[in-house]
Structure formats: C-alpha cells, structure tokens
From TrEMBL:
<comment type="similarity">
    <text>Belongs to the peptidase M20 family.</text>
</comment>
<dbReference type="InterPro" id="IPR011650">
    <property type="entry name" value="Peptidase_M20_dimer"/>
</dbReference>
<dbReference type="InterPro" id="IPR017580">
    <property type="entry name" value="OHCU_decarboxylase-1"/>
</dbReference>
<protein>
    <submittedName>
        <fullName>2-oxo-4-hydroxy-4-carboxy-5-ureidoimidazoline decarboxylase</fullName>
        <ecNumber>4.1.1.97</ecNumber>
    </submittedName>
</protein>
<dbReference type="InterPro" id="IPR018020">
    <property type="entry name" value="OHCU_decarboxylase"/>
</dbReference>
<comment type="subunit">
    <text>Homodimer.</text>
</comment>
<dbReference type="InterPro" id="IPR002933">
    <property type="entry name" value="Peptidase_M20"/>
</dbReference>
<keyword id="KW-0479">Metal-binding</keyword>
<keyword id="KW-0456">Lyase</keyword>
<dbReference type="Pfam" id="PF01546">
    <property type="entry name" value="Peptidase_M20"/>
</dbReference>
<feature type="domain" description="Oxo-4-hydroxy-4-carboxy-5-ureidoimidazoline decarboxylase">
    <location>
        <begin position="10"/>
        <end position="170"/>
    </location>
</feature>
<dbReference type="Pfam" id="PF07687">
    <property type="entry name" value="M20_dimer"/>
</dbReference>
<keyword id="KW-0464">Manganese</keyword>
<keyword id="KW-0378">Hydrolase</keyword>
<dbReference type="Pfam" id="PF09349">
    <property type="entry name" value="OHCU_decarbox"/>
</dbReference>
<dbReference type="InterPro" id="IPR010158">
    <property type="entry name" value="Amidase_Cbmase"/>
</dbReference>
<keyword id="KW-0659">Purine metabolism</keyword>
Length: 595
C-alpha cells in the first residue's frame, strides 16, 4: 500500500521512520532526523530536508553513508545479499545480466575507484528518467568520474544517493512524474535530429535552418497540434508559434496574451535541454488544459525560438529579436562557414523575408513573458533544490584585447629588462579572478589567450586575449569593468607594454519584473519547495523580450554538476515534473487575477 504525506505527518516517529526505512541504504538516522522537522508540506520538501541533513552531517557520517552502498555488479550482487531496493535498481539497469567482458570491466573500475577514493562508486542507475541507464552509459560514467577531484567526487556520490532516495520514495508513495516523463520523451525525440558531421558521431548540433533544424521545427509543430493548440505556425524567421486561445470565440477585444517559450537551436555538440525545456514545459500545460476542456482568460502563446546561440551566423537572438523589431536586414548578407548567405538559407527553408517586419509584437497586447530554463550552472545542484527563481539576467561587457611588448631572446634577455606581453596578461588574469569574486555574484573571464607566432625560446611580444565581464545589475557590472580596465592600464604602464581594446558587446542586465518574479515564487512555494533566488549568468531570450514587456524566469536544476553546452547536460523527470506543476500554478494564479 502506498504511503502518504498524511501518514508520515501523523504517525508516531518510530512508525513513520519504518515507512521511510531503506530510502537511504542502511542509514536510518537520516529519516529520524528528518521526521523531527515535521509536518512536511510536500514530498519534494521531505526530499530536500533529507538531503540537507546529509549535507550538514560531518564528513565521517557522509563517508559512512556512501560506504553503506554496494558496488555496482559487485560481490553483494554475486552473493545475492543486496537489499531489495538495490537488487531492483541493478536489475533495471541490466547489471545482473552483464556479458563476461562487461562484468570484467566493471570489476576493474570498482578496484580502480576504491583505490583512488576509498569508497564505492555510487550512481543512480535508474537514471534521470527512472527506467534504468544503459550498461554502456554506466561504464562510461564510471570511467569519467575516476578523474574527478576526491572532494568533488564525494559530493557527486552524495548527489546520486539523493537521486536514489528520491526514486525509492516515489516508488513507495506511488508517485509517477507523468508530465515530467512526457517532457523528457519529447526532448529525447527532438534530439534525434542533428546536423551532418555531428549526427554520425552521436553528437547533438542543430544550427539555424539546417535540415535538422527544420526537422525540429516540424516535430515541435506536430507536438503542439497534438497537445491541442488552436493555432500553430512557423513564422518568417523559423520560430514555431503555438497559440492556445482564451475562452469564448466571439468578441476578443481586450483579451491579452501571455508569451512564453525558449529556443530550439543548440551549440555544437551541446545538450538536449538548453532552451528546449522552456518550450516543452508550457506545451505540457496546454496539453493538460486541452484534455480538461479548460480555457484561460488570456491567450497563451508558446514559441520555439528558431535561433539564440549564434552558431551558424554572427547574429544571435534572431528568433526573439524579430518579435521586438530587432532584426537587422544586413544580417541577410552574412555567410556561414560554407559560404551560404543567410538570405539563401531562409529562402531555401521557404521563409518569406518580406514578412519579417510583420512579426513585431505590440507590447500593449501582452501581459508579459515568462521562461523556464535549465540552470546551466552548479548552484541548485549543490544546494539540493529542484527549482530556482531568477532575479536578473546578468548584463555583460565583452572586449577583444591586445597587449604589445617586445619580442626578445628568452635566453639572453634579463628578467628585469623584459617587456613580456603574455606575463602582463597573466597578471591581469589573476586580478580579474580576484576582483570579480569580491562582488559575490559578478563573474569575469579571460576565455581566449593567444601568443601569435609564439616560440619556446622567445619572450612574447604580443598577446591577444578576450574579456567577458558580467553582473546582475548594470552599475555593478560597470564598476567591475572600470576596475579591470584601470588595472590593465596600470599593469601595462609598470611593465612598459601597450594595450588596445575593441568593445564587442555591451548588453544591459534584465532584472525580473517584481510582480512576475513574485508569481513564480508563489507557484514554487505552493509546491512546498523552498525558495532560492539567484541571478542568471547566461543570456536568454527573455533578455530580448525584457526590452518591451515585463519578464521573469524559472530555473530547473541540472545534473552532472549543472554542466551545460555539453552532452552531459541533464535533468530529471522529477525536476521537470515540478517545473510543469509550477507553470500550471502560475497560470492558475494568473487566471484569478485576470478579469
């Protein structure tokens, strides 16, 4: 019989602890400590409480928890002494049916891992979908994590233990994240389309208006129609636009629209969730509304933006930019790496260039813009929270820079006579790191560093480098920029070298509209999930819409330390389920506010 939240809250602690026994392998102290914090508002809150108890435990307790788990395909499996839960999990991943080569490989990895870290390798083998990872994926993950730093790997083991506990709690409570599974499956199917040269390698790359890109648009369109959208179209820049109309088919005067969505293009060899999660989450909401025969007092416009990443052409936010009138006709003459002009690519895709100006939306017709996005960072993963409230999208300033000194013989030039361009930039790099850290949420990066025609026996006379500086408030960003440039000036004067700067980007910060941020907060709080407010260090389509209408974003936790723009980018069906439920609550709350 499935356990319920009411049972857990009402039962005596020993009885309730028995209901939770085995969620954490041979470690009942976690459930006992959690029950002291009753009543629980939701199962997600209970999961978070248990994770925080482990995080706040001392290192010896954490190591004991990790060591309570069996090796994968190890001695306990062979001797059939696994717990029932572990047996089920290893069965679902096929580890009880390994070939001799697979078994030998896993045994060697177990040996190597224990020798390096002193505890067994922990992996939630039922995976982010809950149905079990493929054996090859398990082996590849095992081998990859052998290279981790011991402290990081301990944290990664604990994160996987929390995922194991989450799945076990779902099993016991009869909880099935059906909408999270739906969103997961949509994303998996969309990821089948990839550009030539990458598809053959099993890599995901979808750049603007390639065959794969157009196939993605068609698949999203089909999914939208299946969900019950009233109108679905591919517009003049390739955006996929679905509209779910307000109740009533007569006089629509005064009916406003809530816009949402994200992009479906990817970086090269990227992940499956960046952008796409923000398309499919509201689509799942429309599907449920349609199945219930329910209408909202406003139109809901879900947009799969055709381009955000700037991978094929030197223009970004083509999809969302067109909706605010920010499409530069000169971009049409840009050529990709194969010499194909954007104009030709658009015409080949059957897009009508003359209609691009007509895409511009009238902000007066809109309530605002909201976007769901995978975090693309480690914060939510580290604090064991599935959702985060975005306070602002960081403003950024970027420069391409050059320091010029004097190239000279590395053996004959005394150290106090050198005008080393690379050393000057290296000194600046250390300052950049230190200065950005002073603000807490500012970031600064020298992502490119190059000594042209460098030689092992020559003091560098030139050094080319980039500067990328970001902060959630423009004034904070500008103070960071001023300090970094002043330091560059001082370093160059002291070292007798010169510098030149080319400003390549200045993007304003996009603070979340307070009312819309509050709506996300109300929705997340209604789920019983603790609130965490955070800036976004990455750029998003919401930055564009921010120029003409209020916007706010919801972040969803990423797995694998939150890595993004990488094939390891991932999230779980549970976290996607919560994102859909939060979006549903936002729509419901907004419906009560809208006349």
């Amino acid at each position: 019989m499935a356990i319920t939240l009411e049972q857990l809250n009402a039962a005596a602690i020993p009885e309730a602890a028995q209901l939770l026994d085995g969620l954490y392998e041979h470690s009942p102290w976690i459930a006992w400590a959690a029950l002291a914090q009753r009543p629980f508002r939701s199962l997600p809150q209970l999961k978070h409480i248990m994770a925080r108890i482990v995080a706040e435990a001392d290192r010896d307790a954490q190591l004991a928890l990790v060591r309570a788990h069996p090796e994968l395909a190890g001695k306990a499996m062979v001797s059939q002494t696994l717990t029932a839960e572990s047996t089920n999990e290893q069965n679902k991943a096929g580890l009880t049916n390994c070939s001799p080569d697979e078994f030998a490989r896993i045994q060697q990895l177990n040996t190597d891992y224990n020798a390096r870290f002193g505890f067994p390798f922990i992996l939630a083998v039922r995976g982010p979908r809950g149905t079990g990872l493929a054996k090859q994926e398990i082996i590849e993950t095992f081998a990859r994590r052998l290279d981790n730093h011991p402290d990081f790997e301990l944290a990664e083991a604990l994160r996987n233990i929390h995922r194991i506990a989450e799945i076990r709690l779902d099993d016991r409570s009869g909880t099935e994240p059906t909408l999270g599974n739906l969103v997961w499956d949509w994303q998996e199917k969309l990821a089948q389309h990839s550009d030539p040269g990458y598809a053959e390698k099993g890599q995901l790359t979808v750049t603007y208006l390639t065959d794969a890109h157009r196939a993605c648009a068609q698949r999203i369109s089909t999914n939208m129609r299946d969900c019950g959208f009233d109108e679905v179209e591919i517009d003049a820049v390739g955006n996929v636009v679905g509209r779910y109309k307000a109740f009533g088919t007569g006089n629509r005067a005064g009916v406003k629209t809530l816009m949402t969505g994200s992009h479906y293009d990817t970086v090269r060899n990227g992940g499956k969730y960046d952008g796409r999660l923000g398309i499919f989450t509201p689509m799942a909401c429309v599907r449920e509304l349609s199945r219930q025969g329910r209408r909202l007092p406003f139109d809901l416009e879900v947009i799969g933006f055709a381009e955000e990443e700037g991978q094929r052409y030197k223009a970004t936010f083509l999809g969302s930019g067109a909706l605010i009138g920010d499409f530069n006709p000169q971009w049409l003459d840009q050529k990709d790496a194969d010499g194909v002009p954007m104009r030709d690519a658009m015409q080949h895709a059957g897009l009508c260039l003359d209609d691009i100006p007509k895409l511009r939306r009238n902000p007066a017709d809109y309530l605002g813009f909201v976007e769901v996005h995978i975090e693309q960072g480690p914060v939510l993963n580290e604090i064991d929270l599935p959702l985060g409230i975005v306070t602002s999208i960081n403003g950024s300033v970027r420069y391409l820079c050059e320091v010029t000194g004097m190239a000279s013989h590395a053996g004959t030039t005394p150290m106090n006579r050198r005008r080393d361009a690379a050393a000057a930039v290296s000194e600046l790099a250390l300052y950049v790191e230190k200065r950005a850290a002073q603000d807490g949420d500012s970031v600064a990066t020298i992502g490119m560093l190059n000594v042209p025609n460098g030689s092992i026996n020559v003091v560098p006379g030139r050094c080319l480098f980039s500067l990328d500086m970001r902060a959630p408030v423009d004034a904070q960003r500008d103070a960071l920029v001023a300090d970094v440039l002043a330091q560059l000036q001082a370093i160059c004067e002291r070292r007798g070298v010169h510098h030149a700067l080319e400003l390549t980007e200045r993007a304003a910060a996009a603070p979340s509209a307070p009312a819309w941020q509050a709506r996300w907060e109300r929705a997340v709080d209604s789920l019983g999930v603790p609130l965490h407010r955070m800036p976004s260090g990455a750029g998003h389509d919401a930055m564009k819409l921010h120029k003409v209408m209020p916007q706010a974003m919801l972040f969803v936790r990423g797995q694998n330390a939150g890595i993004s723009h990488n094939p390891l980018e991932s999230t779980t069906n549970n976290d996607m389920q919560l994102a859909v439920e939060a979006f549903q609550l936002l729509l419901n709350h907004l419906a009560t506010e809208t006349p």
